[in-house]
Write a structure and sequence with these properties.
13 helices, alpha/beta, binds pyridoxal-5'-phosphate, Rossmann fold, four-stranded parallel sheet, 363 residues, six-stranded mixed sheet, 42% helix, 14% strand
Amino acid sequence: MPVSVGAMDRNWVHHAISVVEADANRSADTHLITVPIPRSTGVDVYLKDESAHPTGSLKHRLARSLVLYGLCNGRIGPETHLIECSSGSTAVSEAYFARLLGLPFTAVMPTTTSPEKIDRIRFYGGDCHLVDDPTADLAAEARRLEADTNGFLLDQFTNAERATDWRGNNNIAESIFAQLEREPHPVPDWIVVGAGTGGTAATIGRFVRWRRLATRVCLVDPEGSAYADAWEAASGHGSADHRDGPSRAGRIEGVGRPHVEASFLPEVIDRVVRVPDAASVAAMRVLNAMLGRRVGASTGTNFWGVAQLVGELRDARRSASVVSLLCDAGDRYAHTVYDDAWLSRQGIDPTPFEAQLSELFAG
Ligand SMILES: *Cc1c(COP(=O)(O)O)cnc(C)c1O
């Protein structure tokens, strides 16, 4: 257990909170962009463009919330070493906030993490603690480091759902609904999200209840993730027919986990769509063509789910809106989903899914 920050350091804590707030004050909100799908579907599709944050992904919101949570809980002081177990975008964004506060930051990650990611974390002044053993328990290693340094583990997979103010404070849900106010369907039928920590799904699911809105939350879950099964078990839906082997897990970065994490709250999710990895890649490509820019693979997972709902709404002749997230841009994935050789090594063939999408969006 890290020591709590003594009363002596309250001035520093106040200063640190001001610095984080000033950073937010300098930053603009992210756009809610429209996706030009055919009008004949009768459905308006919007994406919250989270790639526009200073650190390039929706993890910017999470990192800010986790750091403020630690500061206000009395766990982060002027000497605190911040630690996270993350090989991805979370560590990049947390390194940014640690640097803002002048605190050391270490990300615990496997040696196999791509050099681009390691460079990105180091760019923001973060340290990468690489673990060789592929079977090692990275979370336990992060805890050990926390104890050794008398530091503080930000712990995204536990704290994501509780560190964000779900009632407002311009969280992602409040921002989406404010930006929809002048649209033909300001209350979307669906908001489609993937779950990594589950924090974004939790914030949106709580917010729509709090505001007493009819909007439902659809979770899109990639191959090998435990979340779809966990939701079915919690909600009494479905069967285990679709279960995938764990060996295929983890190819759509940012979403899906091999084990259910504490911050995933299945009760606020209304529906789950399981998305084959090849369908995520197909939807990513189709979306790129529609937007004229490259998005990350988890945005493809989202867009596959959006497309299924658009098809259903069109068939039901219901005019409505559907919202999802553009989680990050494609430039982080040049050596994975944007590399054809990588796709073929993985046995991922998006072509049949691209054909399905072309048919749906044929107009
Ligand atoms: C973290 C992440 C997600 C999922 O968001 P959570 O709030 O953690 O569930 C989706 N896409 C990308 C690229 C991410 O980094």
